[in-house]
């Protein structure tokens, strides 16, 4: 493996690296250039926006890095939205953070705002007004948002994470490598769903199951999915399904881009996205059932809580929940129900009465953060039902609880019954 | 190892982040997400990972690739700061998420965690328990790994 340094910088970029635009820009450029050299990039590419997830507290290192940038006078030079933090700043009573996280998590969020970022505090920025144009280059962090912006919006980001996201916002450029390059956006693998019954694909729970299977089979490779229904102009149904699919695929694997043939913008036809030597894997209903079962670790039907909204609930998901709740009984007192969403979506959900429908049934709405990244659930909670494949994937390790993956309707029925209720008709 | 078994083997890789280290290899059977997969003391806690309960702290961690959340960057930087990071990372695929964790720790704390990209075949030679020494120059220049089976 020869190690030729192929990277060529523009005069402007050399000046930034040399510190002529201040020490903060120089530090951010050192990170961008360090990654470019590791990636073997030949140049950098200007970006139109960034989405940063370094505002979630993981320890002192992230705080010291961000406060260093603030003290050096850094400001983002492109639109940069912020992912979830460790605290719900609107509903502070819901998060039971320990004193370190409460103090440092708040400082970390404040430091990101001081850099000029937009405090939308959401892991679904694409449903809170940040929707880059197809073909534009962006630097997005948060694995579900990366998968969505690449796959569903057709913008181009590589897999960015903490630090490089904010560095890209400050420097306004990223390495021209990975998924910024057209040649890396073709499918190495085809998953064919044409043998799966249409009724199953019409069930919301099929989509995290598809994502889990995709993550398992694709790893970090780009896949094309054929035989799936969808229309991105159907008022949010397809978009929310692909959001669930991508979030689970990015958790169970390293999926950053997938194409749904006939649905997503880069894949009007299979031929147009097929990479050389791509293999095809036929998928059955049984495969999806198996993938769904693997996201459920609970062995009993006892239930302590239900968590919805990972990634953050959209307005159309709120509408679907409000429909489920209409004219029905409240949630069982023994089951805590949480819906995580963004401030922007909550404001819309308030205006349409969806938020009150959730509260009237006994649920709580959390903003700015999420129930599996910060302490929200009561001590002693053992089994949690969710409609999110991503939540089901990470919560057992993060929170030490068991999970049950179910449809939205199953989650509501279970919350009302006080125990896990399954609708086996979905799988017949 | 190729050959008779006990002879040290020298492998050439590509540096992804500079540094030098010496230690015992922990070869992961599956990729690992640091975020959600490793606790604050460097113990693997991912319920889906076959090596759950094993510590990565101070080990030379060999794996095909990183996996999952982009927050792994911050978790790696924090493990470096707190002294619970692996001694080095050997990967078959370049993983920018991990490289950035090492770059930031170098900026803020002056540490230098070597990250080396090896071929699939060379990575497969590095079994758990193998003793290895690594010297990685500035990316993307070469890195040298000397491996000695126990």
TrEMBL record, chain A:
InterPro entries: Aconitase_4Fe-4S_dom, PMDh-L-like_dom. Pfam families: AcnX. It comes from the Bacteria. One of its GO terms (molecular function) is lyase activity. Residues 8-412 form the Phosphomevalonate dehydratase large subunit-like domain. Keywords: Iron, Lyase. PANTHER family: DUF521 DOMAIN PROTEIN (AFU_ORTHOLOGUE AFUA_6G00490) (PTHR36577:SF3). This is DUF521 domain-containing protein.
UniProtKB/TrEMBL annotation, chain B:
Pfam families: AcnX_swivel_put. Signal peptide: none annotated. InterPro entries: PMDh-S-like_dom. The keyword Endoplasmic reticulum does not apply. Keywords: Lyase. Transmembrane segments: none annotated. GO terms for molecular function: lyase activity. This is DUF126 domain-containing protein.
């Amino acid at each position: 493996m020869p190690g030729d340094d192929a990277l060529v910088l523009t005069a402007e970029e050399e000046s930034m690296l040399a510190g002529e635009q201040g020490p903060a820009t120089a530090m951010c450029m050192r990170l961008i250039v360090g990654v470019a050299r590791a990636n073997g990039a030949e140049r950098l590419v200007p970006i139109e926006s960034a989405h940063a997830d370094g505002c979630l507290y993981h320890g002192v290192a992230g705080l010291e890095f961000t406060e260093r940038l603030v003290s050096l006078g850094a400001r983002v030079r492109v639109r940069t939205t912020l992912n979830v933090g460790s605290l719900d700043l609107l509903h502070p009573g819901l998060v039971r953070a320990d004193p370190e996280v409460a103090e440092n998590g708040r400082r970390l969020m404040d430091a990101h705002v001081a850099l000029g970022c937009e405090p939308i505090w959401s892991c679904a920025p694409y449903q809170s007004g940040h929707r880059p144009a197809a073909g534009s280059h962006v630097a997005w962090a948060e694995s579900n948002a990366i998968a969505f912006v690449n796959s569903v919006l057709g913008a181009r980001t590589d897999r960015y994470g903490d630090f490089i996201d904010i560095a890209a916002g400050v420097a306004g450029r990223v390495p021209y490598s990975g998924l910024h390059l057209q040649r890396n956006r073709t499918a190495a693998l085809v998953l064919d769903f044409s043998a799966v019954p249409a009724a199953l694909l019409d069930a919301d729970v099929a989509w995290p199951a598809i994502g889990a299977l995709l993550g398992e089979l694709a790893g970090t490779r780009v896949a094309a999915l054929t035989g799936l229904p969808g229309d991105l102009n159907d008022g949010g149904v397809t978009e929310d399904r692909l959001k669930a699919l991508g979030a689970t695929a990015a958790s169970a694997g390293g999926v950053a881009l997938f194409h749904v043939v006939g649905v997503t913008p880069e894949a009007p036809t299979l031929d147009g996205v097929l990479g050389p030597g791509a293999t095809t894997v036929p998928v059955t209903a049984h495969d999806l059932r198996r993938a769904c079962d693997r996201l459920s670790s609970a062995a009993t039907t006892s239930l302590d809580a239900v968590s919805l909204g990972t990634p953050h609930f959209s307005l159309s998901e709120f509408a679907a929940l409000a429909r489920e709740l209409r004219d029905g009984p409240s949630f069982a007192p023994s089951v805590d129900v949480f819906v995580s969403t963004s401030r922007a979506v909550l404001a819309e959900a308030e205006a349409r009465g969806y938020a009150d429908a959730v509260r009237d049934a006994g649920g709580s709405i959390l903003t700015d953060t999420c129930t599996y990244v910060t302490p929200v659930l009561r001590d002693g909670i053992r089994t949690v039902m969710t409609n999110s494949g991503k939540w089901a994937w990470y919560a057992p390790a993060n929170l030490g609880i068991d999970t049950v993956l179910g449809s939205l309707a199953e989650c509501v029925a279970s919350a009302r019954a006080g125990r896990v209720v399954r609708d086996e008709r979905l799988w017949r | 190892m190729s050959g008779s078994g006990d002879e040290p083997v020298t492998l050439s890789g590509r540096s992804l982040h500079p540094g030098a280290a010496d230690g015992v290899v922990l070869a992961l059977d599956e990729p690992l997400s640091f975020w959600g997969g490793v606790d604050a003391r460097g113990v693997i806690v991912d319920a889906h990972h076959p090596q759950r309960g094993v510590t990565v702290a101070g080990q030379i961690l060999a794996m095909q690739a990183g996996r999952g959340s982009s927050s792994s960057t911050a978790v790696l930087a924090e493990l470096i700061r707190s002294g619970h990071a692996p001694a080095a990372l050997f990967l078959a695929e370049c993983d920018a998420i991990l490289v950035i964790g090492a770059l930031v720790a170098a900026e803020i704390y002056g540490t230098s965690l070597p990250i080396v990209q090896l071929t699939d075949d060379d990575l497969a030679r590095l079994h758990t328990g193998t003793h290895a020494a690594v010297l990685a120059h500035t990316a993307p220049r070469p890195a040298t790994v000397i491996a000695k089976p126990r």
